[in-house]
Amino acid sequence: MQNEPLAFRMRPRTIDEIAGQKDIIGEKTALYRMIKNGHVPSMLLYGEPGIGKTSLAHAIAGTSNLPFIAMNATVSGKKDVEDVVAESRITGKVLLFLDEIHRFNKLQQDTLLPHVESGAIVLIGATTENPYHDVNPAIRSRCGEIRQLSRLEPTDLMEVLQKAMADEERGLGKMPITITDEQLTLIAEGVNGDARKALTVLESAVSASDEVDEKIIIEDWLLENLLGRIGLFGDKKGSHFYNLLSALQKSVRGSDVNAAIYYLANLLETGDLVAVNRRLLVMAYEDVGLASPEVGPHVLAATDAAVKLGMPEARIPLANAVIEMCLASKSNSAYKAFDAAVKAINEGKTGDIPLHLRDAHYAGAAKLGHVGYKYPHDTPLGSFGGWTNQQYLPDKLKNTEFYKPVIAGEEKKMAAIYDRLKEFRKKK
Predict the structure, then answer these.
(1) Right CATH number for 154-227 from 1.10.760.10, 1.10.8.60, 1.10.10.200, 3.60.20.10?
(2) Which of 48, 287, 348, 385 is 20 to 30 A from 280 (CA-CA)?
(3) Rounded to whole angstroms, what are the CA distances from 129 to 126, 178, 339?
(4) pLDDT at residue 396 is higher than 70
């Protein structure tokens, strides 16, 4: 067993040994009670790598005493599924743990699904991708539980590390290791909630340390070297990458500079500069908009500069852009107005274009009644420029207002002009 990685050896054997995830498998949860009483429902476990999906499946199997079969959907075929079905016919109900379940194809599903539905196979599917996006509805409908696991807290990871240090059978308990609580805390806080990484760092530190006076002394610099960039998260083009993009946009929208910079840093470390630039440009017009109209061109300049510079220098203009957007006055009125117009069109609220607005640049246009257009520039209106009171919307929509100004930043001036023009129209 000692040839196996420490993270493998220290997997929880029952659900009582699981660290963290108390909201999912704690003693006061329905899932815990069901498993303890002998009922294991089919389920989907969703979350980032290293947060315990595989460990939870093994623990459930250990608690329920069901025959356990583990498969990975990236390498399994129809024959593997048929073998699981055959096993269930011999032994009775089996627990199938299917990692990367979103990679399962339709043929594999068709072979497996009837047996999951009948209860001959209890399916525990694990995925790093959002199951509502990447797992087929046929699988989802047969899983009574769809649970999103969370990254472990440092206190949970301390529990995992201390167990590994004390366990003489599966862990490092028989080794003369000298490591402080502060060093264990450094590991627990440096792996971004990943139990597998925490145990791997601990094992690597022990392997790389010298033995002095029959003691293995763990040094701080070694841990810091092993931890390195291990705390980063977000797989390029995976669900968590899009979660990072979402978190960045919502932090900017909420004017939280520190959170926005944090998520920008995570995103740039994943290496997809194109996707980050695209999202920043969208945010400039979706979330900042008319309240600070100068921000859009500023962000465009920053993203153009980022493309020309490349990483790591691209971080400089992009950090400027993110902070400017965070602290700018914000308005979503423009795109909301557009969406309202689209909604009206899709609901059939349309009408004929007024005759005086139709194309009149051809002989015979007057005979069709395409006359009467008043050129606004011919009628000056103070410092505004030119304006004339004429109808532009179709008759059926002539009093409709799609635009609702936000009284913020520069849009306050636009809103005042908008309201003043409405008053002029009412005087017609």
Answers:
(1) 1.10.8.60
(2) 48
(3) 9, 40, 30
(4) yes
Q: Using alpha carbons, list the distances in angstroms from residue 283 to 241, 265, 300, 331.
A: 17, 17, 11, 11
How far apart are the C-alpha atoms of 197 and 229, rounded to whole Å?
12
| Contact status, residue 145 vs residue 21, Cβ threshold 8 Å | no
Determine the pLDDT at residue 236.
52
pTM of the complete model:
0.61
Nearest-5° angle of CA 170, CA 173, CA 176? 140
- Distance, in Å, from the CA atom of 201 to the CA atom of 184, rounded to the nearest integer, reads 10
Tokens of 59: 């623990």
For 206-231, what is each residue's pLDDT tens digit? 998 888 878 898 888 888 888 875 54
pLDDT, tens digit, 9 for 90 and up, residues 334-375: 999 999 999 999 988 888 888 888 888 888 888 888 888 989
pLDDT band at 163 (very low <50, low <70, confident <90, very high): very high
28, with CB counted inside 10 A (0-12, 13-18, 19+), is exposed
CATH (residue range 333-426) = 1.10.3710.10
* Residue 66 phi, psi (nearest 5): -80, 145
Residues 6+ apart with CB under 8 A from 291: 328, 329, 330, 331, 406, 408, 409, 410, 411
Domain boundaries, the chain: 21-148, 154-227, 239-327, 333-426
Assigned CATH class of 239-327 = mainly alpha
Return the CATH architecture of domain 21-148: 3-Layer(aba) Sandwich (3.40)
Q: Are residues 405 and 414 in contact, defined by beta-carbon separation less than 8 angstroms? A: yes
